[in-house]
TrEMBL record:
It comes from hydrothermal vent metagenome. The keyword Secreted does not apply. It is an enzyme of class 2 (transferase). Pfam families: PK_C (PF02887). The lineage of its organism: unclassified sequences, metagenomes, ecological metagenomes. Its EC number is 2.7.1.40. InterPro entries: Pyr_Knase (IPR001697), Pyrv_kinase-like_dom_sf (IPR040442), Pyrv_Knase_C (IPR015795), Pyrv_Knase_C_sf (IPR036918). This is Pyruvate kinase.
Length: 178
C-alpha cells in the first residue's frame, strides 16, 4: 500500500481456509489503515520525467491540481479507462470516478487504486456545459459531492475517440454555469 499498489490478493491457502471472509475483512482493514499513513499520501510520481502523450499529461496535471487545491472528487469521462489508470498511479486520497457507457471499461477500472466505475449515458449534446452538468448531477446523486465542493473533470474534445483526453476543467458544485 505504501508503494501505491492497485490491488492486493490472498493466497489460495488463505482464501480457501476455514475463515475466508475474515481474511478478506482483515486485509481490507489493514489496507484502509495503511493508507492513512502520511507516507502513503505523498507522491513524487514522475515529477521530473517527460510524458508520452497528451492524455497522460492531462492525467498528471489533474492529480497535481487536485492534490493542491482541496478537490473533493475527480471525474474522468473515458472510453478506455486509460486516463483513470494514469491518475491512479499517483498516491492520493481523492476519489476518481471513471465515467463511461462502456461496460468493459467500467469493469477494468475497478482494478485501479482509488478509481470507482460510474456508468453514464453517452451524451449526444454538443454543448459541453450540458455534459458538465450531467457529470455534477451524477456525482450529487451518488452523494459524493455537495454544494461548494470542487470537482476536476477530464474529457476529450472528440467524442468516441480513444486516447483523446485533452481537457481538464475545475468545477464548483452549485455554480450557476458549468
Amino acid at each position: 500500500m505504501l508503494d501505491g499498489t492497485d490491488a492486493v490478493m490472498l493466497s489460495a491457502e488463505t482464501a480457501a481456509g476455514d475463515y475466508p471472509e475474515n481474511a478478506v475483512k482483515t486485509m481490507h482493514d489493514v489496507c484502509l489503515e495503511t493508507e492513512k499513513n502520511p507516507i502513503a499520501k505523498v507522491s513524487h510520481h514522475r515529477l521530473h520525467e517527460h510524458f508520452k502523450g497528451i492524455d497522460e499529461t492531462i492525467a498528471m496535471s489533474t492529480m497535481y491540481a487536485a492534490n493542491h487545491l482541496g478537490v473533493k472528487v475527480i471525474a474522468a469521462l473515458t472510453e478506455t479507462g486509460k486516463t483513470a489508470m494514469w491518475m491512479s498511479r499517483m498516491s492520493s486520497n481523492i476519489s476518481i470516478y471513471a465515467m463511461s457507457d462502456n461496460v468493459q471499461t467500467l469493469r477494468k477500472v475497478t482494478l485501479y487504486r482509488g478509481v470507482y466505475p460510474c456508468g453514464i449515458e453517452k451524451s449526444s449534446a454538443n454543448d459541453w456545459s450540458q455534459v458538465n452538468e450531467t457529470v455534477i448531477e451524477t456525482l450529487i446523486n451518488k452523494e459524493v459531492v455537495e454544494n461548494g465542493n470542487l470537482v476536476v473533470l477530464t474529457k476529450g474534445m472528440y467524442k468516441d475517440k480513444s486516447g483523446g483526453t485533452n481537457m481538464m476543467k475545475i468545477l464548483r458544485v452549485g455554480d450557476a454555469n458549468y
